[in-house]
Here is the input.
Amino acid sequence: EHNQRARVPSFDPSIVDSLYASRILLEALCIRLTVPRIDSADVEALKSTLAELDQVAIHMDADAWEEPHRRFHRLLVSHAGNSMRQKVASYADQCEYYRRLYYRLVSIQTARSAEVIAAEHRAIASACTEGQADLAAHLLTRHYARTALTVLGQMAPEFDPVAIRMALQMVGADTPLSDVPSSKRQTRKEKEKKNVTSI
Here is the structure.
């Protein structure tokens, strides 16, 4: 009967705006703290998790995608403090419904949409393993913004995500990558070389 149908969480765009703005602000800090501390084990973990995500993406299975996807994002903040990592995990839990909704929205479009997600993940991982903390933060925060704005654009196109826009501005990710100063895209080796020559 109609009254027996499963209940779906009501969609409140202000919650999406608030949650993703909070993630952008917190995880921009956490990934910047993590990147300088990434070791060979972290690099291998990122590579294997990306490979797993690529395999899952072939089948467009949201349930199978969720666990390695969350693991990937945990790795990006793995060297931030325990308190911050717990808060990141809490936000990730609260975002699960919207994340799954996003995955369904892109999966019913084209394979190209899934490729965009995979490319964003690979770019973030690459920036991390190359020691480019500012670039990693830039890519991660815009990745979150894309997720939230895609969902909002489909579910509440009239809503103005002012918190997300302000959060992006605060972390310096409100401009396209091509506008990011080249100094923010230096590799770890380039930064070390610069530090040595400046002594």
